[in-house]
Amino acid sequence: MNINENIKKLASLDQHLYHNDFLLTWEKTDDEIKTIMEVAKTLKAMRAANISARLFDSGLAISNFRDNSTRTRFSFASAANLLGLAVQDLDEEKSQIAHGETVRETANMISFLSDFIGIRDDMFLGEGNTYMREVGAALDEGFAQGVLPERPGIINLQCDMDHPTQSLADLLHLEHQMGSLDNLRGKKMVMSWAYSPSYGKPLSVPQGIIALMSRFGMNIELAYPEGYELIPEIVDIAKRNTQKSGGSFHINHSMEDAMQDADIVYPKSWAPFHIMQQRTELLKTADKNGLKSLEQSCLANNAKHKDWEYNAKRMERTKNQDALYLHCLPADISGISCKEGEVEAHVFESYRIRTYLEAGYKPYVIAAMMLTNKFEYPAETLFQLIENKKKRVGF
Amino acid sequence: MNINENIKKLASLDQHLYHNDFLLTWEKTDDEIKTIMEVAKTLKAMRAANISARLFDSGLAISNFRDNSTRTRFSFASAANLLGLAVQDLDEEKSQIAHGETVRETANMISFLSDFIGIRDDMFLGEGNTYMREVGAALDEGFAQGVLPERPGIINLQCDMDHPTQSLADLLHLEHQMGSLDNLRGKKMVMSWAYSPSYGKPLSVPQGIIALMSRFGMNIELAYPEGYELIPEIVDIAKRNTQKSGGSFHINHSMEDAMQDADIVYPKSWAPFHIMQQRTELLKTADKNGLKSLEQSCLANNAKHKDWEYNAKRMERTKNQDALYLHCLPADISGISCKEGEVEAHVFESYRIRTYLEAGYKPYVIAAMMLTNKFEYPAETLFQLIENKKKRVGF
Amino acid sequence: MNINENIKKLASLDQHLYHNDFLLTWEKTDDEIKTIMEVAKTLKAMRAANISARLFDSGLAISNFRDNSTRTRFSFASAANLLGLAVQDLDEEKSQIAHGETVRETANMISFLSDFIGIRDDMFLGEGNTYMREVGAALDEGFAQGVLPERPGIINLQCDMDHPTQSLADLLHLEHQMGSLDNLRGKKMVMSWAYSPSYGKPLSVPQGIIALMSRFGMNIELAYPEGYELIPEIVDIAKRNTQKSGGSFHINHSMEDAMQDADIVYPKSWAPFHIMQQRTELLKTADKNGLKSLEQSCLANNAKHKDWEYNAKRMERTKNQDALYLHCLPADISGISCKEGEVEAHVFESYRIRTYLEAGYKPYVIAAMMLTNKFEYPAETLFQLIENKKKRVGF
Fold it and tell me: Domain holding A68: CATH number?
């Protein structure tokens, strides 16, 4: 990659990411999506070339994980560190938050000297993204009232609706594997449900994927057993995007069928939309018996679809018997991480290293979201960093 | 605020904060209190002006929280980061400390490359401040014996006696709201007990407030239901301070009465001194039944004083029906965070943003304690930082 | 210490630590051991002289503690911070690792922007060091396949076989106390089992000590009650080392006898090799009853050897009644941390400060392992740091 060409490309994009939170890809223009991508690639190339991207002499990035996480936690920490920020975890169990603090108070209390808050909240359908906006509104008020010296940016590290740092990492991987975004035009991409022994996996990945990938002229096939619907409004966004971009959008209830001539496949488990709605209600009222019985009925229903595994037989139906396999990881690999899962072991193994490469874009996507939130002219900013010639390691 | 004028004011103060721990405000002279205030304000202004306050190229600030905390934890992390230090938590559950290590050994083991240890220990009356001094004595020995290359400074992040980072933040807020410290002279400030459904809240805030605020010529009214005494020695300090500063000190057992013509009010729950003494004994012997029955009798006693709520009726009695309301947060707000609490919801709401502004001084107070502990001439140090013109963010 | 002389000594050593993990001292040459020592001493002297050793403008050091730890955790954090790296904990309970991720996937996921992974895994005999090598192999693959921009170095923070950061800190302490490594020649060092009320203490310290200390011409006496064997292969390494270095190696089943004319003593509890093997099997199968009964029989057996305490009587038999006492800390001190333990209280007290000095080398040993892993010519690197004259604190 030629860093200077990337920066030129960047300078030509029309974007308003400065001082705006990154909460949903569909709130961003194509130029804004491309800005994140070009900044991410530039930062990745700079890291490989030992050029420091330290833009903050000091500063804090707060992480608020309301669900377990390894890779997103490390991606966030890596992005913050790359730019010079220290990470401070908001651990809601250790803090006094459980003791009745309101969101707006806590949001201000943790932000007096903070530059970013990264939030992961994907447990409650209808709540995660709303929570992020509540935090945002509290920060707006705090900044307007002089409580905060600046308005910290919010990074969506996964909510109930979207997982933008994941889908953008996936898109960068696709661009690299296919040679260019233009090469995606006309390609068939299958976002498919797959069986997993676990229950209640978030909808944000499939939703994020169809909403973002539909912008590039691809033929999107969304496949799932009847009943495993996604949030309808987000499916509509994907449909409109394909219409606008010259692609197509289909829903298919046969994995077999869906895979026919696919260029790209993304087989992954998720919980049905209406189940997640019920689950949210039960979680809110802490109804343990209700949750238990919902889990059991959902697992029983899942078990009817154990044949939704991505295996050699399905792979053979794809383009050249070699569709590019995507996954956000960790995958439920049959015979490895579980008895029966999303993907056959030797199929996964063929694409394993490529799934690692896919994941490797995420820290840079987060860093790009941070950089563009705080620097209005990212092309100039990156240019200056490169001119400075400060090494990340050594003299 | 004019940064250069602040720095001039600083240079004229006579202080010996260098290499001395900050454990109790009443061990510090007026000039030392003012030094912390001027340094804190300067650092706050520098942060707002994007001037880096990074004085440490590397270094560690250890946090030792023996009780839950959100805001103090973030304030400590923010202060450390502002000066260039990384925070390392001493998590006593995860460590081997429970396995019989002595305080003096652990104090040295965590300090080989540490610059500061921030300690919060407010659970045991008669123990928290003592613990900090034990740690200090261990560090003195380690430094004297060549174990440690320097003597890490200790920051009291709340003990059983005082909460100096809180009271100094409150004082900075008062100075700002009233225009100057001189304007405090003759003002009536009410530190009042208030009802809370929880039990065993520390005494350190009311004690810290009366001991510090009594230095500035105010008329201090300490109000509480009979039986809710504070540590007598600290009440004596407050009395002596008001005599010396030309103010007055009264104890009042009627909230109604106390609020009459008040300029400033600080309604907050605390546990009675003698209850905390009993509690400490029970905690030491891990007497669960004893703790349970103490809690029940104490809650029953508290419940007799539910009318000690700061509400519109009380507010109307204050000066211009608008006394400045202070709180260390989180407040127990009636109808919001609990059914019946310390303060009526719409009264709190009128002062909510100001309580956030109040809290916003704490990170800078901690940073000022750090800076003055390690830099003998803070005016010069700050002047050099400003001359350096290094930006915190960007080039 | 003369920093420049140290650096000259360094430049003359033949070593290949660059890009090689530090997993076992016996995989390293004498010159490599000396390189770590000289770098560690130089960094310690620089820290004392307020010279910044910041070689990383940004970067991450991952800590993966599979067992509790205070001192090693703080040593790792201190070392990372000294060089400019931020620490990110891999907390396997909070992460999704428990959900069936493979080691090789996780190793890559946490390493996209990481410089080091420090691992402590001493619970399972036959597993800890193997785990480190599995992580290493995964990182090798990730780097070879372009997943990782560099190969993070692995630091062994204690495994089932060795505890190299401990034994090297101990060696630096010995060198300092005895005046030089040459002065160790002909000295008698006793690595002795000692009674502790706890069970299942790792073998890595005694193994690490005999394997390293046997290189310097000392007469090594390994003392333990019959049945408390160490891993035989490591005892063989120690034997061969003494033969090569002109020392001697004996096993003794009487603590009394072993102490006769000792110059240096290291009395410390450990679990018998064959018990640890059984324990590993039981831990693997999560056999709680088996573990319970093993613990009981082991404790009962331990209790037969309560007389294996290092006390005044034993100390009197040593050279000049004053053999240098070593311990990795925390020691089980009779009457202090337990009723009956490894060492008599007033004996420990005589050497207490020296055990702190001993422990104080560990952060610099870790920093030296990091520096030599990433900088091929450490003498030049250190020379440049000193020439740069950047202060760690202040201007």
Answer: 3.40.50.1370
